[in-house]
Automatic annotation (TrEMBL):
Organism (species): Antarcticirhabdus aurantiaca
Superkingdom per UniProt: Bacteria
Protein's name in the database: Phosphatidylcholine/phosphatidylserine synthase
Length: 274
């Protein structure tokens, strides 16, 4: 009996090869499974937010961001990359980092701002969608200098989601403001600002460049710093995430300066060669 589901053939325009080889390696399925689990985490976070379980909802959105960082690395490690997986990862990103954080914040704070708050939510999600679409098109640009891989254009979607939920982190630390409408309006405007950062052309450090190296004598301090950061996350989760968000925002001017210097150096090199 013929299966009602089409053969799983990631990256292939037709099913000819899939029908000739009815079995595929598990390694081709695992990365896509992780992506699906990330979508489930983000969607469940939305549900929990509207049920009033905000801390768990925010935790699930953060978990979705972790899974998003894992699936690509797992795909490369297992050699299971495919066009299918890349497209599904982009679809997952708009759910997990464009829709989920905005709705979680809306349920938690922004709903008190009424229509203005909802407009901010819509604009944030739109900014995230535009950022992801631009990222996908830039991957196919053959004229893009190799060193540009050291930078993102705009704030990346996972980082944007982390920044967007900063008001929730602050509220979980015990800070309670007595002006719900004003707080909700300011939170909505902050969310809108994060969406604009994602859709902008501001260069931000990617952390994925080939030139990312650590001096041998700094390896042990870096390892200890990572252990300390994880320990702080476990012991003081919301306080640590709050500080992390502010530190990330503080790095943006430095990334802009580094990008401008590298661009100027390339222009001078081209002028000298001419």
């Amino acid at each position: 009996m013929e299966s009602p589901f089409p053969p799983f053939a990631p990256g292939r325009p037709d099913n000819t090869e899939a029908q000739a080889a009815p079995r595929i390696p598990i390694r081709q399925i695992v990365p896509n499974l992780i992506t699906i689990l990330a979508i489930c985490a983000g969607m469940t976070g939305i549900r929990l937010a509207f049920e009033g379980r905000i801390e768990l909802a925010v935790g699930l959105v953060i978990g979705a961001a972790v899974l998003d960082g894992v699936d690509g690395r797992v795909a490369r490690y297992l050699k299971g990359q495919s066009r299918f997986g890349a497209e599904m990862d982009s679809l997952a990103d708009i759910v997990n980092f464009g829709i989920a954080p905005a709705l979680v914040l809306y349920a938690h704070i922004i709903h008190n701002a009424g229509a203005i708050g909802w407009i901010c939510v819509l604009l944030y999600a739109s900014g995230c969608a535009l950022r992801l679409a631009r990222f996908n098109t830039m991957l196919d640009d053959p004229n893009r200098p190799k060193w540009h891989s050291n930078f993102f254009v705009g704030v990346p979607a996972p980082a944007g989601a982390g920044l967007a939920m900063l008001p929730a982190y602050i509220s979980f630390t015990g800070i309670d403001l007595d002006a719900p409408v004003a707080t909700a309006t300011l939170t909505g405007l902050y969310l809108l600002a994060v969406g604009l950062l994602m859709a902008s052309r501001l260069p931000t450090f990617s952390g994925k460049g080939d030139n990312l190296r650590v001096r041998r004598d700094w390896a042990i301090p870096v390892i200890l710093a990572v252990v300390l950061y994880v320990a702080l996350l476990v012991s003081f989760l919301w306080e640590t995430l709050t500080v992390t968000a502010f530190v990330y925002m503080a790095t943006i001017p430095f990334s802009m300066r580094a990008f401008a210097r590298r661009t100027k150096a390339d222009m001078q090199a081209e002028a000298g060669a001419a």
